[in-house]
Amino acid sequence: MNSVVRMALAPVAAALGVFALLASLPFAAALQSFRPNIVVILADDMGWNDVGWHGSDQIPTPNLDALAYNGIILNNHYVQPVCTPSRAALMTGRYPIHLGMQGSPITPAEPTGLPTQFKILPEYLRDLGYKTHILGKWHLGYYRRQYLPLRRGFDSFLGVHNGYSGYYDYMAQWEVDGNLITGFDLYKNETPAWENVGRYATELYSGEAVKLIKDHPTGEPMFLYMAHTGVHASHRGRFLEAPQGRVNSLKYIIEPNRRTYAAMVSKLDDSVGELVDALRERDMLSNTIILFMSDNGAPANLDALYPNWGSNFPLRGVKGTLWEGGVRSPSFIWYSQFQTNPRVSDQFIHITDWLPTLYTAAGGDSNTDLPVDLDGIDQWNAILWNLASRRFQALLNIDERERSAGIITKFDTPDPTRRTWKLVVGSFGRGNVDGFFNDVRSPLNPLYDYNRVINCKAYRALTTLFEPTTKEYKMADMRRQATIDCRDNAPLDRNFEPKCTETPCLFNLDRDPCEKVDLAPNNTAIVARLYNTLKVFRRSLVPQIHQPLDLPAANPARFNNTWSTWSF
Ligand SMILES: *[C@@H]1O[C@H](CO)[C@@H](O)[C@H](O)[C@H]1NC(C)=O
Ligand SMILES: *[C@@H]1O[C@H](CO)[C@@H](O)[C@H](O)[C@H]1NC(C)=O
């Protein structure tokens, strides 16, 4: 019996006597409490500075904030710098360099996918009796049927195969030799779902999530992978799409693109409220783990291929870089078992950790059931009991084509200002995205409205389980702890470009989370140590499995204008 179960059952067992308990509950219901429902909400391209709990008062995210203030804000959680690699790492528990997926995302018409020899998260959870669903973005390949979500452990799918599609028309475009190829990309299981054209994507997925929860058989645990396409940019000419009423309600945001982006984030926040409320209605909330994260930082540079006007400020860099703004994800985890101790966690967690961590949370034994060569580390006990993270180092990536790499190591030293070191090799976007972008930060909270948090759907759902933090000062305190403020550090010099191409750069993240001061010349021994570790990782790298586009074979014109599986 694992510790969660013991904890969950102990008071009941004491009250009823354990035998009375087992006799009085149907077997399936008793089992359910051993296996919590797991909801992973993955936002797409959402920035560090686009959520309330990191100190921004610009975009209202009351539902996310309510869960964050009553759960564990994961302030030291790292992901991969772009979509496909993050999703591959989440699904496999392996660094993308061990999958050949460390490069740029899979593009439409590219005949590649997450290698099928790796067993992935929904398959593991299915082994433990879970019903498994994916809503939203897959982005791990679809050129052959064996790469599709339903062949990889999911019972149902409503979403897109590619990296994005229009929020109303579900069209995805790709430019090849100056020609724009356009195709429909929205599937219900394995059939094009034309009937949903015109419905706003974020609402479509949240409506479907509510339906899945309503129809869920009691007694069986559920894994819901809510991989929103929000808040990724849509296709060319209309990067940002949100219902006009919501956009209008945010008139105080002057920059019109940022305003539409904020509306997209706000719609995603609504969706989280709907989902939590549906779980409450089915009496599933008390037995559900909700993990929220963004797959990477926001493409806050306006010359990005798909800019979205998100903000990672004050963190350096953008999506696609190994700067903190690219890989440090706005994240939290909520579970009723945590409720007595909401906190801001500095526990060092990498996206690969979720496979073994959630497997253990689901009642599995990650020591005996999972491959020994996973890169992910089981963090369940660390999270549940607030113990030290078992991770001391995270490979951020090695991209052998771009010639970039990054690694973070935590040293076990008594001096808390000399523990966390990050080595960065190379440069990103040809040096165009090594700086700071989209500084929309306003002073800590003149506008931020705690009443809005207290009155949102998610918060009200939580009140049916326990008395959530109502004290404004408690929420404010967590918010302050979760906010990174580098104004006391070196002044922001927008022209300062660390040259990490010739020699690696070294940053001390304890004192300089915004990566303003390259300390490599002052700490040659630490540089050597981290660089050697990178070299060891380099030896286990699987070359990128990118393929030349398969056209015209994959052209949507051949498939009733849909991006379809094309190779049989
Ligand atoms: C690093 O070393 C240089 C001289 O080599 C010195 O000027 C600078 O103050 C040092 N920086 C820190 C943070 O110790
Ligand atoms: C082909 O596409 C149209 C929309 O352009 C759709 O209405 C129709 O159902 C599709 N046909 C098939 C066979 O899927």
Which term fits the overall shape? globular
Q: Mind describing the biggest β-sheet?
A: 10 strands, mixed
What fraction of residues sit in β-strands?
Answer: 15-25%
Helix content: 25-40%
From the helix content, strand content and strand pairing, which structural class follows? alpha/beta
* CATH classification, class level: Alpha Beta
Terminal Cα span: 45 Å
Strand order of the largest sheet: 9-8-5-4-10-1-11-12-2-13
Description:
By secondary structure, this protein is an alpha/beta fold. Helices cover 28% and strands 15% of the residues. Strands 9-8-5-4-10-1-11-12-2-13 form a ten-stranded mixed beta sheet, sandwiched between helices. A hairpin with a 4-residue loop joins β15 and β16. α1 packs across α2. The longest helix is centred in the middle third of the chain and has 26 residues. The protein is globular. The chain binds 2-acetamido-2-deoxy-beta-D-glucopyranose (2 copies). One 2-acetamido-2-deoxy-beta-D-glucopyranose binds next to loops.
Secondary-structure blueprint:
Layout lengths: L2 H14 L1 H7 L2 H6 L4 E7 L18 H8 L2 E3 L2 E2 L4 H10 L28 H7 L3 E7 L18 E5 L10 E6 L2 E6 L2 E2 L2 E2 L8 H14 L7 E6 L16 H5 L7 H26 L6 E7 L29 H4 L4 E4 L7 E3 L3 E2 L3 H8 L4 H4 L10 H6 L7 E7 L4 E7 L9 E6 L24 H5 L2 H6 L9 H11 L22 E4 L15 H16 L29
Helix pairs in contact: 1-2, 7-9
Bound molecules: 2-acetamido-2-deoxy-beta-D-glucopyranose (NAG) (2 copies).
InterPro entries: Alkaline_phosphatase_core_sf, ARSB, Sulfatase_CS, Sulfatase_N
Pfam families: Sulfatase (PF00884)
Cofactor: Ca(2+)
